[in-house]
Write a structure and sequence with these properties.
The chain has 281 residues and is an alpha+beta fold. Helices cover 16% and strands 28% of the residues. The protein has 7 helices and 18 strands. A hairpin with a 6-residue loop joins strand 1 and strand 2. The longest helix is centred in the C-terminal third of the chain and has 11 residues, at 220-230.
């Protein structure tokens, strides 16, 4: 299933994409289950519904983030060897973890807002892993049972905030609008191999990132297991699994997003995001 949330920011409704590409409303079905988000148990209860019998959502509503209540936005740094090289850093011997503020999360096609004082806003297309049930100290074999689905994430960064002065990764990653998520949460049964997905990003029609999740240093199951050693995982937690090479920081000279730029990114089977870059508010 391709699950989504649609409508105005802060009042999104649950939906599912039918085979023809129409959005079907899931409000009644979610109310019946008593769930407010797409956890593993909720997804299991939705599998037997007849999607074609659900109400069609008319018009072209805004698509919100596919996770309603993200408790932890966990990111993995330098998880593609050639991205580590272009960043001037050594490939990690174990996963590099950092957090991104959940207030950065926006819909897949919402604007990217340059923060006040920001001058080096950069892009990073990443595979997102959405956790669907509680887990701690998980083995790699147990990891799949705790994954509700996958999604596209743009892990935007302000590189000066991140790396210069008293730079901190969380500070450079957490500005409002720096976490477009979606358009869909795609359940694992629709993804044959999460380690064999094309992943790409364009800016103003020019391709900057074009790779595959095969090139991850640490794969999805290894990451879920690793993170669960240090913090319990809860339904709605999201792990953003790192970006391939081609970020603006790695260009010579560096290239950063400017007001008016258009960003398009996607992952095989998980949909496409389109964002416009706007001035500070």
């Amino acid at each position: 299933m391709k699950l989504l949330r649609y409508g105005k920011s802060g009042s999104e409704l649950p939906g599912v994409l039918d085979p023809s590409g129409k959005i079907r409303d899931l409000t009644n079905e979610m109310s019946r289950t008593g769930a407010s988000d797409f956890g593993c148990d909720t997804i299991a209860s939705l599998r037997n519904i007849e999607i074609d019998s659900l109400p069609v959502v008319t018009g072209s509503p805004r698509i919100g983030p596919c996770v309603a209540h993200c408790g932890k936005f966990i990111c993995i740094g330098l998880n593609y060897i050639d991205h580590a090289i272009e960043s001037g850093m050594e490939a990690p011997k174990e996963p590099v973890l950092f957090m991104k503020a959940t207030s950065a999360i926006v819909g897949a096609n919402d604007d990217i807002v340059i923060p006040r004082g920001g001058s080096k806003v950069d892009w990073e297309v990443e595979l997102g892993v959405v956790i669907g049930k509680h887990g701690a100290y998980l083995t790699e074999e147990e990891a799949n049972d705790h994954i509700a689905g996958y999604c596209v994430i743009n892990d935007l960064s302000e590189r000066a905030f991140q790396l210069e002065g008293t730079g901190q990764w969380v500070k450079g990653k957490s500005c409002d609008s720096f976490g477009p998520m979606g358009p869909w949460l795609v359940t694992p049964d629709e993804i044959k191999d999460s380690q064999n997905l094309g992943i790409w990003l364009n800016v103003n029609g020019k391709t900057f990132q074009n790779s595959t999740t095969r090139n991850m240093i640490f794969g999805v199951k290894a990451l879920v297991s690793y993170v669960s050693r240090y913090m319990s995982l809860q339904p709605g937690d999201v792990i953003s699994t790192g970006t391939p090479p081609g970020v603006g920081l790695g260009k010579k000279p560096p290239v950063y997003l400017q007001e008016g730029d258009e960003v398009e990114l996607g992952i095989d089977g998980l949909g496409v995001q389109k964002q416009r870059v706007v001035a500070p508010r």
